[in-house]
Amino acid sequence: MPELPEVQTIASDLNEVVGGKIIEEVAVSLAKIVAGDLDRFSSLVTGAEIQSVVRMGKWVRFNVNGVQGPAVMLAHLKMTGQFHLGLWPGDSDKKNGRWDVHDHAAFRLKGQSPDLDTLYYRDIRQFGRLRAFDLMELDEFLIQLDQGPDPLTVSPEEFYKRVTARKGRLKCVLLDQTTVAGLGNIYVDEGLFATGLSPVRSAATLTKAETNLLLKELRRILNASIKARGSTTSNYEGLKGGGSFQNVHKVYGRAGEPCSKCGAPIERSVVAGRSTHHCPHCQPPSKEKSQA
DNA sequence: CCGGTCACCTGAGTGC
DNA sequence: TGCACTCAGGTGACCG
Description:
The protein is α+β, with helices and mostly antiparallel strands. The chain has helices spanning about 5-20, 40-45, 135-145, 155-165, 170-175, 185-195, 210-225, and strands at about 20-30, 50-55, 60-65, 70-75, 80-85, 105-110, 120-125, 130-135, 265-270, 275-280. A 4-stranded antiparallel β-sheet has the order 1-6-7-5, with helices on one face. Strand 9 (about 265-270) and strand 10 (about 275-280) form a beta hairpin. Helix 6 crosses helix 7 (about 210-225). The chain is elongated and about 65 Å long. The chain starts with a helix and ends in a 14-residue tail after the last strand. It binds a DNA duplex through helix 6.
C-alpha cells in the first residue's frame, strides 16, 4: 500500500502521538508478523521509551531507548499495514479492548489517555513485518538491505549516476529500492508522466538533463503528496486519517481517460509485473520526447 | 546482470 | 444471491 508520502505521513503522525511514550507491554497475536525471534523482539521493545518515529525509505523506524540500551523497531507495511490506537486487548472487563481480526500486534503505552492506551499494528493481507534490533544488529541488517538514498535528498549527480548505471527499464530501476528508496508504483508512474519519459526506456540511455528533470518532478509530486497526507485508494490511513492526493493523480488509475496534456487516452500496460499507466503520445518509447 | 513468474494473503469489484 | 475471476500502493525467491 504505502509509498514514500504515505509512510512519511504515518511516521510523523506516530512521532507526534506516541513519541516520548513508554511501551509497557507487548502482545502479538500472529507470530509471523514479527520477523526473527519473538522473545528477542519482546525483550528489546518491552519497557522501552519511544524517542522518535521516522521514515526510512518505505520503512517506519521507531528509535527507542530500551531497558538494555538503545534499540530500533522497524515496520514495513507492504500493501496493507496500518497503525491505529485502541484499548489494550482484555477479556471480560468492559473497559478492555478486543483484537480485530486483522490486528496482529499490540503495544500498551504508558502515559497515553486511558481510553486509547494501545498502539495496534493491523494488516489485512499480512505481508508486513515488524522487527527489532540493537544497534549492532541494525547495522548488519541495513548493510544487507542496501537501500539507496532518499529521493527527497539525493543529489542530482548521485541520482544520475545511480539511474544510468542500470541497464533495465526505467520503471523497474526506479521501483528498485537499491536505486533510491521510497518510490512505488503510483509515484513512479506519475513522475514519468510529468517528465515525459517512457516507463520502458532503458535507464542507461537517460541524459543528465533528463534525470535532473525527473528528480525535480518526482520531488515536486512527492512533496505535494506529503502535504495532502498521501494518496488514499483503499487500505491506507495515518493515525489522523487518510490523504487526498489520489484526486490529483494524472495517470495512475486513469486508464482510458484523456491525457491532461494532449487528450490522448491514458494506456494501462504491465511492466515489471506491475500495472503501469502512461500517455503513449507524451511518453513515447523512443529516445526523443515528442513535442507537438 | 536481466526479465518473467510466482508466492505471500485478504477483500473489493465485476460480470455471468 | 452466489460464484468465478481479476485486481490491489510491495518485495523476495526462483528460473531461464
